[in-house]
């Protein structure tokens, strides 16, 4: 045998066959803890299933491995022809109707239509997850547990459909459900905060105190509004239609182009007004060129998020319960929170969701919230805050406790011996010389940046923290077969 010929440890020539995965040639290539062998001890996957996007990735990673949009591209197969001459291709009049969840939120549809809608949701989720597993994650779905963030007051039928899709089509061992606002707070590096989730269907505001979402005291009802990206797209569509009407009366803008323009040039102007010059932009739309001033591009966002109402009404000053502007929505949630929760969360306001990326939105919302607080104060039922010691509420006289307490403190300081007070102050200053002064953050309205719900789930899963609810596959399928929802009581 030629000495240059490579040999195995037995002195025989190496085999040209591909080694089997069941019997690996190297013990270090496939360890017993990998996803191919064992798999129950592997870190879970994080799946964030939203109305517009699907995010999937692994634990302890800063970003998801894939971010897929729910669109017609998921249904294309290899070899399908896409003709650009067909006017129906690429257009989705009315949006993605599969995710128009009015049936789940309002319950006004008949049972057969609800079942058909849930079947479409199941097919779409199954297709999106299969693309994520086969093209991006590249792992076996039967060996990995799943961490699934769930927003507050999520429809039970929709959650049951998503869990049935995961357990039936992908056969994952278990699914851990965790609160989306809590994960958003974790992604900001804090334990408490006010999470403003501006999504596609609605905007949900949830206070989180010591990593617990608070939904009592009427917060769940007064913390939700239909002021979201869907309403913003409607305002942009009507805004651009008014400019197209001057050139072509019968032309309607394509919703894909409307969303692209909304993402590129949409913004919110500051409350003080326009800053600097006002250039005129040329925007192509449906074969036409629209000349629109830059300051006018903030009108759709202002109508969608700050107008008194978004629907035609004879009394625009009195909007519907689900049509509250964003600044007033934040004020209602903070007003109905406990005092200690309010003092902590008001200085830790974090915006998440697709609407949080709109330039100028956070600054405008916080500025108007501060104006509402100065006008009305933090007393439930009071219209305005007076400088007097009493206020009128429902025909009765209510004494302001905070002002009385401050006056008592001032009187005590005046009656205190000045030498004793100076000695006490010198002692406190000497004790705190080595300590750094702490910044006062309670009571001040300010925003905090959060990395998002998915990053919070990645951090929590890496710390091996038990979720709020862990749904096992066998128990879920057995309860579904008996006509139950598959979810534990109290969820």
Distance between the termini: 71 Å
Question: Structural class of the helix and strand makeup?
Answer: alpha+beta
Strand ordering within the main sheet: 3-2-1-4-5-14
Strand content range: 5-15%
- What coarse outline follows from CA principal-axis ratios? globular
What proportion of the residues is helical, as a percent range? 25-40%
- Describe the largest sheet: 6 strands, mixed
> How large is the count of helical segments?
15
Give the mean pLDDT. Answer: 76
- Please tally the β strands and state the result: 14
Return Rg in Å. 29 Å
Poorly predicted ranges: 5-10, 14-40, 83-109, 382-414
Order of helices and strands: EEEHHEHEHEEHEHHEEHHHEHEEHHHEH
Description:
The chain is an alpha+beta fold. Helix content is 35%, strand content 14%. It has a 6-stranded mixed sheet, with helices on both faces. It has a 4-stranded mixed sheet with strand order 8-7-6-11, with helices on both faces. A hairpin with a 2-residue loop joins strand 12 and strand 13. Helix 2 packs across helix 3, helix 4 packs across helix 14 and helix 6 packs across helix 7. It is globular. The N and C termini lie far apart (71 Å). The relative contact order is 0.12.
